[in-house]
Amino acid sequence: MTPQILKPYVIGLDLGGTNSVFGIVDSRGDIKATTAIKTQNYANVDDYVDASVEALRIIIDQVGGIDKIKAMGIGAPNANFYRGTIEYAPNIVWGHECCVPLAEMFKKKLGIPVAITNDANAAAIGEMAYGVARGMKNFIMLTLGTGVGSGIVVNGQLVYGCDGFAGELGHVIMRRENGRSCGCGRTGCLEAYCSATGVARTAREFLSTTSSPSLLRDIKPEDITSLDVSIAAGKGDELARRVYEFTGEMLGEACADFAAFSSPEAFIFFGGLTKAGDLLMEPIKRSYDAHVFSIFKGKAQFLISGLDGSSAAVLGASAIGWDIQEQE
Questions:
Q1: Across-strand partners of 153?
Q2: For residue 77, which of 125, 126, 130, 121 has the smallest C-alpha distance?
Q3: pLDDT (mean) for 197-222
Q4: Which helix or strand (DSSP H or E) is residue 11 part of?
Q5: Are 72 and 38 in contact (CB under 8 A)?
Q6: Distance between CA 28 and CA 9 in Å, rounded?
Q7: For the residues of 117-174, what is the DSSP string, one character each?
Q8: What are phi and psi of 143, to 5 degrees?
Q9: 5 pLDDT tier (thresholds 50, 70, 90)
Q10: What region does 131 belong to: left with phi over 0, alpha with psi -120 to 50, or beta?
């Protein structure tokens, strides 16, 4: 007779600047219940935590109560795994000017172990637990959203560095001369070119410096988004396709450099830009092969995340909860 698991669930929280999405997840990666609140509706962290716990109580009751929950994992921007904090997160109204001990706050309210990590690190852990990285011990996860995030796994362990902030590959400088300004305050960062906002900036640059016909010319330049570029490229728009070629070439060049420090078996891409498929992935691979040190050539796979976009972040956060439950 199979023994019953007394605490078969963990809570995963995908904490973004706009929304906070909670899920209760079992060990197979099935999300049993979800709820959400608006992160930006709360001016201070105490109100945010109180509202989160109130929303969580409902779905916790749906799975049998808090006694069924082993732990909680949180994926959030500017989160420090070592300290359990969110530190000076620019897009979180209650967290952009301070260091918030969020893990400890939730632990006190819920009475269960809680861990927190950067949202891209959470995505990497989720991919290793539930997605295409299952069974891999060396890979780099790149999240291509509003910014460019990354999670680096070496010998089966996520790389955190001495302070919990290792792996900010989106802020590797790709162009030193005449580089674009980046939200981090520097210029020429990968994020300034290869994020969703970077793709829109590239499209605007191409439109302003060429006379090529394009469907994008029907849109006000300031209103162009990466989705508009993707739709136009899907319709065969040559300028939009060149935008993805440019973006893919830079990502491939960056990955060639990243290979030198961890020799990954795969680069895994997640986020809205991956919906462009081969329009993005093919130039990435070509550029990688053109720039990578010869001893690494042909060794790394280039994969798109196997997790459903709507639940991937929650699953990634939940995987942190499974990792910590044995330590408590």
A1: 139, 158
A2: 121
A3: 95
A4: strand 9-15
A5: no
A6: 10
A7: EEHHHHHHHHHHHHSTTTT-SSEEEEEESSSEEEEEEETTEE--TTTS----GGGSBS
A8: -100, 120
A9: low
A10: beta
Percent over 90 (pLDDT), the chain: 78
Q: Which residues share a beta bridge with 26?
A: 9
Q: For 322, how many CA atoms within 13 A lie in the half-sphere containing its CB?
A: 20
* CA gap 323, 208 in Å, rounded: 50
CA distance 270 to 168: 15
317: pLDDT confidence band, cut at 50, 70 and 90?
very high
Structure tokens that stand for 22 in this block: 């909670």
- Looking up tokens 């605490």, which residue turns up? 7
Can you point out the beta strands (E) in 145-254? 148-154, 157-158
Write the CA distances from 199 to 193, 212, 284, integer angstroms. 6, 17, 14
Q: What is the mean pLDDT of residues 130-145?
A: 94
**Helix, strand, or coil (residue 242):** helix
Question: Which region among 185-199, 201-215, 260-274, 296-310 has the lowest average model confidence (pLDDT)?
Answer: 296-310
- The DSSP secondary structure of 261-311, one letter per residue, reads HH--SEEEEESGGGGGTHHHHHHHHHHHHHHS-GGGTTT-EEEE--S-HHH
- pTM for this prediction: 0.87
DSSP 187: B
Q: Given the structure tokens 């439950």, which residue do they identify?
A: 325
Residues 225-253: tens digit of each pLDDT: 999 999 999 999 999 999 999 999 999 99
CA distance 173 to 81: 25
Q: Kindly write down the DSSP assignment for every residue of 35-79, as one continuous string.
A: EEEEGGG-SSHHHHHHHHHHHHHHHHHHTT-GGGEEEEEEEETTE
